[in-house]
User: Fold these one by one.
Assistant:
Number 1:
Amino acid sequence: VAVSNPLIEQFFVKQSKPNINPLIIPDIPLIDLSKPESKHHLVKACQDFGFFKVVNHGVPLKFINKLETEAVKFFASPVSNKERFGPPDPFGYGNKSIGRNGDVGWVEYLLLNAKPESDYPENFRGVVNDYVTSVKTMACEILEILADEMKLQQRNVFSKLLMDEQSDSVFRVNHYPPCPEFQENERNGRKLVGFGEHTDPQIISVLRSNNTSGLEISLRDGSWMSVPPDSESFFINVGDSLQVMTNGRFKSVKHRVLANGTKSRVSMIYFGGPPLSEKIAPLPSLMQGEEDSLYKEFTWFEYKKSAFNSRLSDNRLGSFEKV
Ligand code: GA4
């Protein structure tokens, strides 16, 4: 019988729907940005999953590797060094505690402002700017292809929000350390939570991880599908704000990260958000005809404020839905 350390007890998921029949696990949509045909699949991926994988993304490997190297060095440094950059209020180093409302996870992280010239720990200066600039360009390209494919008059309706000087975008580096006690506990069929289930409040999130597994997305039937890691690709997910701007056509995907136990997982995520004053509402060009808005009007500032007062697993868009 496995005996567990009470200290790690709080990091286990309470209940988890058993895995679905492996024969009906869908494939993760794959978008090859170097192939024009590929763009036809983008809209469908955003509608069906709110999640897809991107290859031939144009982000230089050297930017990715430099950032990963600095991240690994930082997380391996003494706690006293890391804590010089904490707590994350709202930016900085955090350990096991997520947000302000009592969420915990088997994770440590750096939350940074994605705006150029922001204040970063020494070794991250320049490195984060190069990476974020390049990833943001790719995110904008994807958002423009989406607008094109949806036949929206302005191909930059979404991308201009990220390009805006006032864009409220965030950058995060996560480290899921190994957990020695975990092996014993896995035998109980329980799962160690690195980052609990949630949707991202912003427009679009761009994730890159090392080759350690852990990311899972929630499928329509409520089961969890684990996403095979791929350090050479990016994973993109639709955020709540893009779901609202498309009046629910695109789905903000619920996801979580389980800690692997034996191998460190390092991920870096760019969260592309609009300026604080921006009204988040269904695009008028999508609303011709009979369609009604599914959401009350709100600004990104209002949504963000409410999001930061919520718990990770809360249905944050719920209170903005029209009844
Ligand atoms: C999820 C997406 C981003 O990582 C993040 C997260 C933020 C945080 O870590 O402080 C939140 C979470 C995220 C949503 C609900 C609130 C806020 C933790 C939390 C409990 C930086 C973001 O913008 O929202």
Number 2:
Amino acid sequence: MQNYKAILEEIYTDGLNATDKGTVASYIPELAHIDKNNFGIHLKTLDGIEYGAGNFNTPFSIQSISKVLALSKAMALIGESVWKRVDVEPSGHPFNQLALLELENGIPRNPLINSGAIVIADILLSHLKNPKEDFLNYVRELTSDTNINYNLEVAKSEKNTGYKNFAAANLLKSFNNLVNSVDDVLDFYFHQCSIEMTCSQLSNAFFFLANKGYCLTNTAHLTKTQAKRINAIMLTCGFYDEAGEFAFEVGLPGKSGVGGGIVALLPNHFVITTWSPGLNKKGNSKLGMLALEQFTTKTKLSIF
Ligand code: GLN
């Protein structure tokens, strides 16, 4: 039996003492003032063990981590048809890259880069009755927690400065890969990214992907095959042009966000979430990457 508590505490202390904690994202002005000394880790195992260290109960902006939950909702709604509009190949490029879109006739490389997530947002907009309300309820249901909300200031802040996302959405529209208007799709997308959650809430939310599609209350939200597919996409595409590095160093499917969160999981075993707002050059949390590398090294638990 592993001493998870001791391992998490060791990793936490090492992270606190790190000299380079990365740089907080400032292209979304509302995120720029978050203190980069925040650091939290939370582990939840399928057999009921749960430990947290540091700021694991502080809400933060989940940003791109929301793309996984949006994808799972889209798959639950329309199944395999999702793949007619977005591919499943790693991009090897930053999350906001536009060039590939033009080369590939408006079919984004995968659903976890911005252009792909904007197409998924369009699908949700077409299939949910009250899109923003229904999506928030879906996240609350997955997490078994009604205390999760959009941060409207963050959504507004990104809307005011999200020029690249407007460019991506316009390009998608020009290739007829958006059904709804650019403004409506981006309004939904910016809200989706602005959801705030704590590390422990995120571990709960992603539990179903480690548990063959069944959430904490044992409700099936995806089939076993769909959960497998999302985990495969997280492994190959969850960290943009650092997906290879994450697989190499950590060896788990996972997803990062520019708010500094990372969720990773070992199917049938556990979900682990970290939060530290300082990012590395590729836009992934500096301490989070370090902490997860140490976790899989110390426990020898990875998919490999
Ligand atoms: N909302 C952010 C954006 O669209 C999400 C990016 C991220 O977390 N990598 O730019």
Number 3:
Amino acid sequence: RRQLVWFRTDLRCEDNTALHHAAQRGPVIGVVCWTPHQWQRHGHGANKLDFWRRGIIALSEYLGRLNIPLKIIRAEGFETLPDQLLALAETLECDALHFNDEYGLNERRRDRQISERFHHQALEVHRYTDQIAFTPGSLLTGDGRYYSVFTPFYKSWLKNIGADQLQQFDAPEAQPAFDDITSDAPIEFDAGNVVIDANDWPAGEEAAQDRLARFLQKRAHHYDEGRDFPAMTATSGLSAWLALGMISWRQCINAAAARNGGHLGDGDSNLKSWISEIIWREFYQHVLVGFPRVNCHQPFQEHTGAMAWRENEEDFQRWCEGNTGYPLVDAAMRQLTTTGWMHNRLRMVTAMFLSKHLLIDWRRGEAFFLEHLVDGELGANNGGWQWAASTGTDAAPYFRIFNPTTQARRFDPEGIFIAKFVPELANVAAKRRHAPDAATCQQTGYPVPMVDHRAARQRALEAFKALS
Ligand code: FAD
């Protein structure tokens, strides 16, 4: 009997749990639901949609080699998908739908509706835990609650992870070709203002595997030394591929463990740290399910909902454009808007600058990031923003406010990164690039700092104190 596999943020054939199990039961037909407007409503921008579209093309090509046709359902939003998927399953004479679970609130609601609709018509639905190791709700604190702090979550993850969860599945063998079903034509979609270059961001699982292999060979063993320095290429750069499931967390963790004597939480501290980052990713997926309010623009720490954020459009625009007068902040924001990606250290620095120095609502920054990031992902982005704004799970304590100049001196000591993204300062002596004086600003046209660090820090402290 024919099996319908719905690919979502798991755009790969290798190590895809739903695809693997479906192929054991009968001939497979793939489907993707192209709902760009829904994703735009969720805040995703052009770079991510472009990468997504190309990822579907790469998936279709790979599936083609396995004689698995890929059908495309186009819809404005999620609402019509139950009917559309059901109609497709009936037309193609499939008796079961398979998919890997996703954890955003709207996605879970959508999947529930679709499952009910299929069951109602006596069609089977098979759902799998694939994007993370533990089904949300199966890894809880001693008193049965979702973790809200990473370290105990991490320890429990390491303690409970089993060989079955780490087991990878090969792509299925090629099946006999259908004579009555062919793949749909590739999606054409004008995503708008795309800044990512397709050569730098090749979509698909083969490109992801290349990146992983290069990272593990060349950089993983020095991850701890280099990971905080934005001018270095020291991290994996895999986030966009992970976000759309062009590579699985198992493929990442198993490949890293293989170079680490099989260890996940011991051994080479570099590999251990990198593996722990992949577990951070999972932590935030559990947070989405355990604390649904974070899906709905609410802070995790509810009392911070009363914060009197400043509404200052001009200040917000200066942050967005990278004209704050703090060179590392500005270089980072320009990296985001001109390349569609930002280094992790800088995501922390810029998010803290907006939410603390400018005291502007973190949700505005969260949305701006999502609009530009090629790797934009609700769990990690929301988690990162709420961490920086001290409103989240395991958040930075509100009084720990990064000094953006000190951060620049520490993590871009030669000012190389600043020079790359803030050309006004490229010809200024390296040591003055971190905090150009008034005369340098005058000469170069670079802005003087829009706020004084100490005064801004004090203002933030007072605003947070007033909450408690
Ligand atoms: P590596 O250092 O190679 O890490 C490997 C993988 O681990 C990453 O690809 C990512 O999947 C995961 N990971 C690493 N750090 C984190 C983290 N702190 N939280 C969750 N997962 C992590 N990551 C996203 O994937 N999408 C986002 O939208 C996103 N928004 C962020 C917003 C803020 C304010 C902050 C502070 C962090 C955000 N992150 C986000 C996490 C992190 O910055 C990126 O995952 C990382 O910079 C991607 O680079 P990399 O692939 O080279 O990471």
Number 4:
Amino acid sequence: MYKFPKDSKLNNPEFIFGVATASYQIEGATNVDERCDSIWDTFCATPGMVYKQHNGDVACNHYNLYEQDVDLIASLNVDAYRLSIAWPRIIKEDGGVNQKGLDFYDRLITALEKKNITVMATLYHWDLPQYLEDKGGWLNRETAVKFAEYAGVVSQYFGDRISFYVTLNEPWCSAFHGYRYGIHAPGIADEASGFLACHNLLLAHGMAMPILRKNAKKSQHGIVLNFTPNYPVDESSIEAAQFADDEHTHWFIKPLMEGKYPSSVFQHFNNYMPIIEDNDMAIISEKIDFLGVNFYSRSMVTNGRQGKVSDTILKKLERAEIRILESDDVLEDETKAEQLQKLMNQKESHYLSVELQEVERTHIGWEVHPEALLKLLTDLNSIYKLPPVYITENGAAVDDHIVDGVVDDEQRYRYYQNHLLMVHEAIKMGVDVRGYFAWSLMDNFEWAEGYKMRFGIVYVDYETQERTLKQSAIKFQEFLGARKKGLL
Ligand code: FCB
């Protein structure tokens, strides 16, 4: 089982342990109960965009299997479950509320309540209704207003039954992968669009905050950001790494904490900056009760063209290129050429990526470097006045196989043990980390990587929908079981 020093906060039941998922990645049942299409349904249907053109139509069929999945969650002895609510299930195209969508989450939350599991719900984990994308999506300021209305509907209905409301999951991914690099839905590759989408997403968050507070007074309200800290490969690259952090980290956290965008990035990308209206920064910097931190890896930066990074993005772009090249579906030649050209432009505007040799990587190619989590947490804590922090995602993709009913995911449980130790250290060094959610409860639809990448602590056989606890899950079960019994 996982092990921490005797006096560690992690051994104390006050520190929340949970598992996380997201609606489009697990639910399936995309065509039932009047769910509307999301941008991911459209993106998946576009040849070349997603590995083997996989999609979320069935995924883990969680929409139908939620009861057994809640039993599974409870069996892990976790305190909390981080799920996401699908906007396309809740608000219809005519603006009306879809009661059947609310009913599903009601059934799910009721099942969790029966097992005494705390609910953290993300309102936007990337599944924007397609009807809003048709009007510009996150490039349209009106989408922020629509988000606040949707947040109002959910929070009025569920109130304090959801203990933690997360407005957005990783606006960096929604804005930059979705509208700047074009490798996630809706697949737009344009600098100005990336920054505009970001601003409108942050506005959406800020506009929703007072509504959530009013409707769910006893709940905590916050946002989840992803962090991939940038490290210089040598001394000549220090400035470049700092700039990359400004662009990819501080661009998102600084406006939330201080009501300002980093000026270095603003100047550098001057031509691409969105129009910021008078009250916008005050709306965005509305106080939050907690910050969710998603962490997987770090990124190596060389002193090249300033402004765009990173190893991780570059790898994703390369995989996207292969997907397009290998796509067997009838894709008009011109579209294929256009898509490749788009990727080429993206790649050329990046730093030359440095492939560190002899470092450990997970199946998805991300370097394993737990110390970067400790440095990230202590750095953020010294730069900003942080609210309480929850690690809302952390985990590893492993090429898992079942052998005689056992999935020995040694790399994953080592990854968890070593990253959790860093959380322990960070707390000792004064960072107020209150909880940790493993990504993910079970294998699921990994966006552009389809079902190829397995991040679950529970193995999913997609043919039979059978779930099998991997060794990493059994270790959570044992550790949290012992903790519950006061044995640590
Ligand atoms: C994060 C996403 C999550 C999952 C992990 C691996 O960026 O929030 O949905 O795909 O990466």
